[in-house]
Design goal:
With 457 residues, the protein is mostly helical. The chain is built from 19 helices and no strands. The radius of gyration is 21 Å and the shape is globular. It starts with 11 loop residues before the first helix and ends with a helix. The structure holds phenylalanine. Phenylalanine binds at residues 22-23, 25-28, 101, 226-227, 229, 232, 234, 320, 323-324.
């Protein structure tokens, strides 16, 4: 592999769009509103912003550095940069995280397919808010139907990964991403003009600081990592395809801003409607799926709106599942010298098995819990709240303490040709602030800080 010239992304716009495609997905439109709802609204949003700026951006730039410098997959990158050391564990952490995320992501992506189907068969119109809620629970706790969609979505990802039609998807997403953005804006306008919409906006933007506790902080950090696709080598893998002249800092900034913007739009679209239709903001993973159809019902030709919206959401999910699958496939393919198609098959089969269990854990396997969490929630918890921040922390420690500053700066400035005005600030955040903050949030969540405080009292 290393002797062959690695393919690179075609155009500058292609670089940004592919990376945005990886970052923007269900994390912004499904997970962000439900996390915000479950964690008290505006106070969560505020901490989320702090995490994006202080942790997200520095980690993203650092992943870009590792990827383009090594030109390898997530695990292989560390074998090249730090041969014979244990740093490659960061890569393995990422490969496993990709597996686990796909294990529940495909289930939710499958739900979008069900909604496309329902829009096509016109079964979404004329229902009340309670009926949407009841029907969703009935559907998601079922056996065959949600599994069917989960498997179908997994197969779609698999076909794209092995057939190399990724280019087509990238090209399609150049049109579909902006279209999704436009739809979100229109739906926001519809949502904020509903009766009682101001309550939703207040919930989203007027912080109640008494709601902040360690679990809210951990959730906000987890959401920042999940949404930006950082801490697991996805962006290492993607940036290994970047060209020599790609401006890494600028790309990171653009991706971060776009990703955050989409999440905020999703929040503005959801919460006014949540309050207007009397839905509980703490409803959990179903929040978006029980709220949105109500909004569509308030639009002329509601069925058509929901059809187009869920197709766009499905495509946004697909560009993320492709990137997740790519992390695992590139690893198995390059490190085990296995045929790419065979590597992809192994990954897909593993992911499907996880997907079946996490889908069933919404229904008949609900009682079987791990640390008090259903299998679906468990996969979500260990990836977003543990594996990604841990990966991000180790990435920062590795580059901060093991990589020569000059090498870092040379790569991030394209050998001095593009200036990096805030390099020192970035380096300080990456080396000290990010690892310490992530470490403290972990310690706090584990209750260790309380124990240490107890010693000094
Ligand atoms: N960021 C993606 C989303 O918001 C999910 C993802 C996480 C993709 C980690 C790749 C890696 O949907």
């Amino acid at each position: 592999m290393s002797t062959k010239k690695r393919v690179t992304f075609g155009s500058k716009l292609g670089v940004v769009l592919a990376t945005v495609g990886c970052a923007v997905g269900l994390g912004n439109i499904w997970r962000f509103p439900y996390m915000t709802g479950a964690n008290g609204g505006a106070a969560f949003l505020l901490i989320y912003f702090v995490c994006i700026i202080c942790l997200g951006l520095p980690v993203m730039i650092t992943e870009f550095f590792i990827g383009r410098k090594s030109r390898r997959n997530a695990a292989g990158a560390f074998k090249v940069m730090a041969p014979g050391t244990k740093w490659s564990l960061i890569g393995y952490n990422g490969v496993f995280a990709a597996f686990f995320i796909l294990g529940f992501y495909n289930v939710v992506a499958g739900w979008t397919l069900e909604y496309i189907y329902q829009a096509l068969t016109n079964s979404l119109s004329g229902k009340s808010a309670e009926e949407f809620q009841r029907d969703f629970t009935l559907f998601s706790s079922g056996i065959f139907r949600p599994i069917f969609w989960t498997v179908l979505f997994g197969v779609m990802t698999h076909v794209i990964i092995v057939s190399g039609v990724k280019k087509g998807i990238e090209r399609a997403s150049k049109i579909m991403m902006p279209l999704l953005f436009l739809f979100l804006v229109i739906l926001c306008v519809r949502s904020v003009t509903l009766p009682d919409a101001s309550k939703g906006l207040e919930f989203l933007f007027k912080p109640d600081f008494s709601k902040i506790n360690s679990s809210v902080v951990l959730s906000a950090m987890g959401q920042a990592f999940f949404s930006l696709s950082i801490g697991m080598g996805c962006l290492i893998t993607y940036s290994s395809y970047f060209g020599k002249d790609t401006n890494l800092q600028k790309t990171a900034l653009e991706v971060t801003i776009l990703d955050t913007l989409v999440a905020i739009l999703a929040g503005v679209m959801i919460f006014p409607a949540v309050f207007s239709f009397g839905i509980e903001p703490t409803a959990g993973p179903e929040l978006v799926f029980i709220t949105l159809p109500n909004v569509f019902n308030q639009l002329p030709m509601g069925g058509l709106w929901s059809l187009i919206f869920f197709i766009l959401l499905g495509v946004a999910a697909l560009t993320s599942t492709i990137s997740l699958h790519e992390v695992a496939t590139a690893y198995v393919h390059e490190e085990y010298h296995m045929l790419r198609s065979r590597a992809a098959l192994w990954v897909s089969v593993g992911v499907l098995i996880l997907g079946v269990f996490s889908s069933l854990s919404m229904g008949i396997l609900k009682e079987y819990t791990i640390f008090g969490l259903t299998f679906f929630d468990f996969l979500d918890y260990i990836t977003a709240k543990i594996m990604l921040p841990l990966g991000g922390m180790m990435i920062c420690i590795y580059v901060g303490f093991r990589v020569d500053r000059k090498i870092l700066k040379a790569e991030l400035t394209n050998e001095g040709t593009t200036p990096f005005y805030f390099f020192n600030t970035y380096a300080f955040f990456m080396k000290y602030i990010a690892p310490i903050a992530i470490g403290l949030i972990f310690l706090n969540e584990l209750g260790l800080i309380k124990i240490i405080q107890g010693f000094f009292e």
